Every structure is written in C-alpha cells, then in structure tokens.
Amino acid sequence: MTAPALEFPPFRLPPDTEALRTEIRAFLKQTLPTITGGDRFKSWNSRSPEFSKKLGAKGWIGITWPRQYGGGEKSFLHRYVVTEELLANNAPAGSHWVADRQSGPGILRFGSEEMKRSILPRIVKGECYFAIGMSEPDSGSDLASVRTRADKVDGGWLVNGTKIWTSGAHRSHYAITLLRTSGTREDKHRGLSQLVIDLSLPGITIRPIINLNGKHDWNEVVFRDCLVPDSMMLGNEGDGWMQVTSELAHERSGPERFLTNVHVLKELVKLVGRQPGRHAQEVVGKLAARLWSLRQMSLSVAGMLENGKSPVTEGAVTKDLGTHFQQDLPEVARVLAESDAADADDIADFLDMCQMATLAAPAYSIQGGTTQILRGIIARGLGLR
Amino acid sequence: MTTEQTPENETRQMFVETAARLFAAEATREVINELEKGTWPAGLWRQVEDAGLPWAAVPESAGGAGGTIGDLMAVLREAGRHAVPLPLAETGLGAMLVAQAGLTPPAGPLALVIAGAGSPVRIAGGKLAGRAQRVAFASVADSIVVVAPGAAGTEVAVVPRAAVKIEAQQGQTGEPYDTVTFDGAAAAASAATSVTPERALELAALARVNQMSGAADRVLALATQYAKERVQFGRAISTFQAIQHMLAELATYVAVVGAAARTAARDAEEGDGAFAIMAAKTQAGEAAHKICAIAHQSMGAMGFTYEHVLHHYTRRLWVWRRDYGSETYWGAKLGRALAEAGADAFWPSLTASSIAA
After folding, report:
1. Which of A96, A128, A160 corresponds to the end of one domain?
2. B350 to chain A: which residues are within 8 Å by CB?
3. Which residues in B lie closer than 8 A to residue A89 (C-beta atoms)?
4. C-alpha A122: how far from its chain's center?
5. What is the pLDDT of residues B166-209, one digit of tens each?
6. Residue B214: pLDDT band by 50, 70, 90 thresholds?
7. Taking 80 as the threshold, does the pLDDT of residue A248 lie above it?
8. Would you call B212 an interface residue with chain A, using a CB distance cutoff of 8 Å?
9. Higher pLDDT, B217 or B8
10. Can you give the residue ranges of the Acyl-CoA dehydrogenase/oxidase N-terminal domain (chain A) (predicted)?
11. Which residues of A40-64 are buried (b: 16+ CB within 10 A; e: fewer)?
C-alpha cells in the first residue's frame, strides 16, 4: 500500500561508552561547584572558558576527531554520552559548544590542511570558540536567500552584509559565515560559500541583541569591507549550501533537543519529596516516560547514523517531539508545584526557576529548524510532498 | 503499508513475515466485522495456530516455537497492525507463563486473568475463588490462565472455560471483554510460579504497548493514504500544508509509541524491562489520545463511519491504553519509584532504564 512507517530500532550504547559516562559523572561531581538555594536555578546553560579548558584537558572536546589534530578518535556515541552528561548535570559548557558540535566537524570535513592544523588543536584544548553566521535580517528559515556577499579581491574576499541572531559572537574567536560568492539571490543555493571569519578582523561590528529574558546571547554582526584571507574559505567556493545542509542530521536529534532544561525535572523530583501524593507521582512519571521515550528515539537515530544511514525524517521527528517536551516541562512543573504547595511563597525559588525556564522555552522550537520546517521534512518523509 | 523493515535478527524476521503475510490475507475487514457480531473466526484461529504464532515465546520442549518474548512482541505488533480479532496476546503470554511454571500449555485460545485490585482472585488447593472483570476473549477461550496468590506464594492455574461462569460483555473494540466468576472452579492444572501478579501485569502491559504500536502505524498509513487520494478544491488534500503538518505531527506520536514499544520489548528480552515497560505503557497511553484525534480530524466524516476501517484501529488504541494499567496507573507507579529513589538518582535511573539506588 503506502510507504513503510517510520522505524526507530532499539539501540544500546556500547559498554565502553558507559564506562566513559561513569568517568564523566565523577569528573563533573568534582569540578562543578555546589550551588545551593535559589542560585542553583540560575547557573545552567552558561559559558565558562575555565570549565571548557578543564574539559579539554580531559580530552572530552573534539573526542571524535583524529589524533593528529588533538582529537580522541572515539566514536560519535562517545560524544553522545559526553553531551548527555554535560546537559543533564547542568555543566557550563556553552563556550566551546558550537565549536565542538558543529564548527570543528565542518572544518575537519571541508577545511584545508592548514586550517585544520591551526584551529582544531585550539578547539580541543577548550580555548577557541565559534559562532555561526547563517541567519540574516531577511533570511531565517529560507536560508538560501542570504544577501551577505564576499567579493573576490587581491589576497582574499571582501565581505559586506549583516548576520543576525548570532549566538555568542561577542565571546567567540571565529564565525563560520554563509555568504554569497557569486550570482544573485535569485540563484538561491548556487553560488553560496562559507568563510571562517576571525571576529577580531577590522570591518566587523558586533552589536548585542538582548533577548526577552534580558540576556545577551544573540548579536547582530555587521561586515563592512572586511577582508578575509583566501585561506579561510571553507572547502570549495560554491559548496556552502551542501556544507550547511549536510551537517543538520547529526545536529537535529542530539541530547540537546530534550535535555536542555532537564534540571527542572530533577528539581521537581526534589520538590515533591520521597513520598509524593498520587497526583504528583503521576505527573512526575508521565514526564519521565516522555523523556525516557525521547532518549530512546535519539539513541536509535544515533545508532542509525553510526551504521551509515541518514535518518533525516527520524531526526526531524525526534527534534519536534523533544523541543515540545522541553516547552511543556516548565509549565507542567509549575502547575504541579502550585497545586501541591500550601502556600506559593514556600516555593518561590522553584517558581522562579520555572519562570526562567519558561522564558527560555520559545527558542527551542525555532533554533536549528522551526517546528514548521521540521514538519515539512516529516511530511516529505511520509510522501506527502 | 508494508511491515517492519528492521527486525533485530533473522528469527524475528521470520516471525514478522509469517505473521504479516497471514494477517494481511486472512484478518480481513469482514472477519473483524463478523467477530463484532459474535462470530468467532475459527478459520483464522486455526491458521494462526498452524503457523505456531501464539506459542512464539514457548520453548520447543513445551510444544512451542522456541522464540523469545521479543519475538512474541514482534508478532503482536503485526497483529495490532491488522487489528487481528484474536486473543494472541493472551494466548501468547498465558502459554508462556504456564510453560515457565513447568506445566504444558493447553491447546486452543486462552484468556488471561491476573489477580489485582479490580480482580481479587485466589487459588487454593487447585480451586479458584473470586471474580475478574474485563477479561478479554474469556467467552471464546478454551481455557483461562490465572496468575493469582495461592497458599504459599503466587500460582499459575489453567482453568477450563466450562468450569467458570461467564457474563459475556462486549468491549469497545467489539471484542469480548467478559466478567469471569470462578466460584470454586477446579483448575485442570496449577503450579507455583516465580512470576508475581505484578510481573504478569507488566508483561501484559508490554503486550498491549506492542499491539498499540502496530495499530498506531496502521492509523498513520490510513490517514496518509486517505490524504493522497481525497480530492477537494481540485487537488489532493495531501497538498495542503495544513494537512501535511497535521499528519507530520501524527507521525511523531506514532513514532514515539513505536520506539517505546520496541525498546521495552528488547529490555524485557534482555532483562526484566520493568522500567521500560512502565515508561512505554505511559507514553503509549498518552500518545493514543493525540493519534486518534488527529487521524479522525484528517479523515473527516469518512473516517467516522463504520464502513471505513479506521475505527478498528482507533477503537483498539482507546481500549488498549486502558487495558492492564492505563497511563495514569503506570505513570504513577514510575513516578512513585523515581521519587522514592530521590532527585540525585533521577538521571542515572533514566540512563540505566532501571531505578538507580
């Protein structure tokens, strides 16, 4: 009749990755400061170069990369476990996150030998951080419509244009930037390339974009006649679109799609205590069941990737479910806490945490592919388009 | 719609292919509809029996096919995918439990009674007392397998149907969901078992989750096919983005049930899988609501008719989520265990799929 349904065959992480998990847990327990009171709700998802350097010293950044560039030559499943444990334990891994997850692998795959040698070892040490220059004021989900141009001049590329929503650009050393090196907007994905741009170069202005919770993570990055050396072209000129679309499969279904705010659930378990009432049991159990199921899906996708498949639809399904779980979590936790508490003032810290998590939540289903983009991908997988 | 494409091994693949072929050819809409009118599909049962499917997880030494519980679950996913109106789950588990207690599984279809709060059944001196409600297929089973407290621990008993009183009732799947009164009925055989009623309930919940996964797959296939064929405003409704996004969302809920069901089946094969079963039945129960709602909305009035087959699958999802512990029951049980272990054990429990100390 019709196409086979989506399948997520069970996948179990190999024993040596579980051994690594034990090691990381011990390291995090020792390294992460014990924060008490209301402050413990405010420490997550943050950047700490100091922590990144410690993690790098353990060999847990660039863990899959070749040894010649400082990597650990381990599997993506090892990386999966590192990522899970960093997220689940609220580690301040934000500084090196993008470099480790996206930029380093991109350079490894497409970059010149010179670029690999000069940049990758610094990422591995936890000293070199990256931002991603994709979105523009007029190019969001429709990424192929970027306007930022790089024109060939003697000794390099002259970059002009504006990137937006550039996370952490003000604290990064480089931004891998998608731009047009030939043709016009009408050429769509043809004529796009990626430059690895040193953010300290002249001609770059980085302006903060404060988000709704008052934080400065995003930036507007304006390039005005910024001269980028030839050697910083990532791969071949004109391959930019292929490069940015090929990296999305690994990115879509990773643990960051369902564990970003799992601390809320852990705090909820703490709040309800060892012998909660029936309703609290049920709510906690249902959240845990969703989280467990999501994790099994994500593992299944990791297993498929490890076996050389390209689970594009499965990755989109996992991200869609995962981001909505993360959006529901603070809301469900808040409602349960309020209905269980004799007086809301008794749980003010917990409610503050839920509030903060709620303010962060809208971004989950926007970044890395909006719900609507994902559902379009899934619909294609179902043969509907 | 094809069958599962990624079985774990060759034996599994054989079970899946045999079941899928047989069900597709024989478990027709007519057979399903006839059962709802009270006609037991004796021919279908005979073929299923000849293929050895109900005894997938019974050792060859006890007359079974010598497969694992994972194989039985794969067969049940296929059964769910075809709304097979037979007590395959009950017979499969009943025979397995009887064989595990050292007894010979009886021939013929079985019903399963697990003692619990709603079914206070006891076994003493080979006789049974008590009453059980919502016993699937009791009125058409040859025997009833009972897991209940005995004089010294849990016992499993095989009770001929003729020995019990049955009030025939129809469940909302159209299948028998009868009340069974034992009233001193004598067991044809009974023995002590290490499988507690609590454990038997987990296994039964696992069976339902896998049936739900198959049925959910079919619901998605039906809705997808309908959208491609139904033309309105001069085009197939599958070309409307609103419909595409509805069905994409439907696919996410179907997928999560499938992932949870298969992982729980694997965990039950490799260990006891208790954590995974609790989580999977909870997740499946929650997802069933959305799966049915979206599928029906996407298929309009057509999907609401008796004539269309959609309801055979959605009605089963709605009933099966209630069987052997709903999402509320298992969710609370899982939440209770996690809370008792404490917040620091939460994440280790999640990654180990068992409650960490």
Report:
1. A128
2. 288, 291-292, 295
3. 347
4. 20
5. 999 999 999 999 999 999 999 999 999 999 999 999 999 999 99
6. very high
7. no
8. no
9. B217
10. 15-127
11. bbeebbebbeebbeebbeeebbbbb
Over the stretch A130-159, which tens digit does the pLDDT of each residue have?
999 999 999 888 888 899 999 999 999 999
ipTM of the complex model: 0.97
- Where in the sequence is the domain holding B268, given as residue range(s)? 198-356
Percent of chain B exceeding pLDDT 70 equals: 99
Q: Is the confidence at residue A40, as pLDDT, over 70? A: no
Q: Verify that B33 and B51 share a domain, yes or no.
A: yes
* Binary contact (A7, B5; C-beta < 8 A): yes
The mean pLDDT value of chain A amounts to: 92
Domain end, chosen from B195, B223, B251, is at B195
The domain in which residue A310 lies consists of 252-382
Contact B332 A281 (CB under 8 A): yes
Tell me the per-residue pLDDT of B223-282, one tens digit each, with 9 for 90 and over.
Answer: 999 999 999 999 999 999 999 999 999 999 999 999 999 999 999 999 999 999 999 999
In chain B, positions 48-67, which contact chain A (CB-CB < 8 Å)?
A: none
Q: Do residues B190 and B259 both lie within one domain? A: no
Cβ-defined contact of B279 to A289 (cutoff 8 Å): yes
Q: Are residues A139 and A117 in the same domain?
A: no
Instruction: Please identify, among B195, B222, B239, the residue that sits at the C-terminal boundary of a domain.
Output: B195
The answer to the question of residue A9 being in a domain is no
Cβ within 8 Å, pair A273-B4: no
pLDDT mean over B33-50: 97
Quick one: B74 and B190 in the same domain? Answer: yes
Residue A63 lies in a domain: yes
- CATH code for the domain of B255: 1.20.140.10
Q: Has residue A2 got a pLDDT over 50?
A: no
The 3-state secondary structure of chain B, one letter per residue: CCCCCCCCCHHHHHHHHHHHHHHHHHCCHHHHHHHHCCCCCHHHHHHHHHCCHHHCCCCHHHCCCCCCHHHHHHHHHHHHHCCCCCCHHHHHHHHHHHHHCCCCCCCCCEEEEECECCECCEEECCEEECEEEEEECHHHCCEEEEEEEECCEEEEEEEEHHHCEEECCECCCCCEEEEEECCCEECCEEEECCCCHHHHHHHHHHHHHHHHHHHHHHHHHHHHHHHHHCEECCEEHHHCHHHHHHHHHHHHHHHHHHHHHHHHHHHHHHCCCHHHHHHHHHHHHHHHHHHHHHHHHHHHHHHCCCCCCHHHHHHHHHHHCCCCCCHHHHHHHHHHHHHHHCHHHHHHHHHHCCCCC
A136 and A124 in a single domain? The answer is: no
B336 near A CB under 8 A:
yes
Same domain, B60 and B157: yes
